[in-house]
Write a structure and sequence with these properties.
- Belongs to the RIPOR family.
- One of its GO terms (cellular component) is cytoplasm.
- By secondary structure, this protein is of the alpha+beta class.
- Among the domains are: 130 residues, no CATH class; 118 residues, C2 domain (Immunoglobulin-like).
- 40% of the residues lie in helices and 21% in strands.
- It has 6 helices and 14 strands.
């Protein structure tokens, strides 16, 4: 899939064509995104495989001063859809493992069944945590909706008292009380909005490479700068021969935000003091709430000849509350490998405990034959 971009006010830009993507901000022209099969970038790293994280204390932004109820509604719907997909994927894996346990009870080792049962219990715990997490988000959203209705009512009262004749003291006191309630409900909405934002989990973004077809040449150097609220990610790369790309950083973890969009700026480094900005776009992120990893493509320039390929994986919990069971479903390769391993027929070779049991049975039979039992 490709990533939709939001139109920006730039001097040299007439319009931004976006490919089929997340349902983002409508642009002036929509066109399908071309398949990336002719170009498969190969990304290698200069440094070790360490994931960068933007979890400094400065990232914890204070509550907003003005609530954004319309935007919060969109993010809430996308979040609920992603949590539902997460539950369905793990429920499907749980059913498959339970079926394998029932089919493997007769002819299998005890260790094999124990391993399956251990994974089933782990997924069941993760499902309960997901359900609790979804119910917590629903409670926060319901409280937000209540405060929104109270705020709208207070706004209507302030408007009514302001348009009327403020002659009596009772009218002035009622206006002051309504204004105080409006301010209080607005602060509550901002606090709930910030609390709901802290429950969005995290985005793991992996750099896949630039796709430029004839646009990229060996020896070109690029700098990519991503900005997501207070979070930053800057990386530099070089185009090698045979379409290989070398980047100094490969992975980053971003915390999702409600009102912010992901800003991406790509600059071509031609010389020491000669840098050419290829494109600067702003992308929608609410459709990144998905159960499985997504490979997205971002149109960097207006013509779409240069695209940035990213692999985005969403975790519904943050780094401190991430369960181990989530990693079994986030990567499709891991799931396929596990299922292929479990679908194999169980071994017929008896275990040591079974062998000892068979030996004791044979010895008891020999004692019966000789009358010594």
């Amino acid at each position: 899939m490709s990533l939709s971009v939001r139109p920006q006010r730039r001097v040299l830009v007439t319009k931004i064509n976006r490919s089929q993507s997340f349902a983002g901000v409508n642009s002036s022209a929509d066109r399908p995104f071309r398949n990336l099969s002719p170009f498969t970038p190969t990304v290698s790293r200069k440094t070790g495989s360490r994931v960068s994280r933007m979890f400094s204390m400065s990232h914890k932004s204070p509550p907003p001063k003005v609530p954004q109820p319309n935007r919060l509604d969109e993010v809430y719907e996308a979040l609920k859809k992603g949590l539902t997909a997460y539950l369905e994927v793990h429920q499907l894996e749980l059913e498959k493992l339970s079926t394998q346990i029932r089919e493997s009870k007769r002819n299998s080792r005890l260790g094999f069944l124990y391993d399956l049962d251990k994974q089933v219990k782990s997924i069941e715990r993760f499902l309960r945590r997901l359900e609790f997490h979804a119910s917590k988000i629903d409670e926060l959203y319901e409280a937000y909706c209540i405060q929104r209705r109270l705020r709208d009512g207070a706004h209507n009262m302030v408007k009514a008292y302001s348009t009327g004749s403020p002659g009596s003291r009772e009218a002035r006191e009622s206006l002051a009380e309504a204004s105080k309630g409006y301010k209080e409900y607005t602060e509550n909405m901002c606090l709930l909005e910030n609390e709901l934002e802290s429950q969005l989990g995290e985005f793991h973004i992996r750099m896949k490479g630039l796709a430029g077809f004839a646009r990229l040449c060996a020896g070109d150097q690029y700098e990519i700068f991503m900005k997501y609220g207070r979070q930053r990610w800057k990386l530099r790369g070089r185009i090698e021969v045979n379409s290989k790309q070398v980047w100094d950083s490969e992975e980053m973890v971003f915390l999702p935000l409600v009102t912010e969009f992901l800003s991406i700026k790509v600059t071509e480094l031609k010389s020491l003091a000669n840098h050419v900005v290829v494109g600067n776009v702003s992308c929608e992120t609410k459709d990144l709430f998905a159960a499985l990893p997504q490979v997205v493509a971002v149109d960097i320039n207006d013509l779409g000849t240069l695209k940035l390929s990213l692999e985005v994986t969403w975790n519904p919990f943050d780094k401190d509350d991430q369960p181990s069971a989530a990693s079994t479903v986030n990567k499709a390769s891991t799931v396929n490998k596990r299922f292929s391993t479990y679908n194999q027929s169980p071994p017929d070779t008896p275990s040591l405990r079974e062998q000892a049991f068979y030996v004791s049975v044979q010895q008891a039979g020999l004692l019966r034959r000789h009358g010594q039992w």
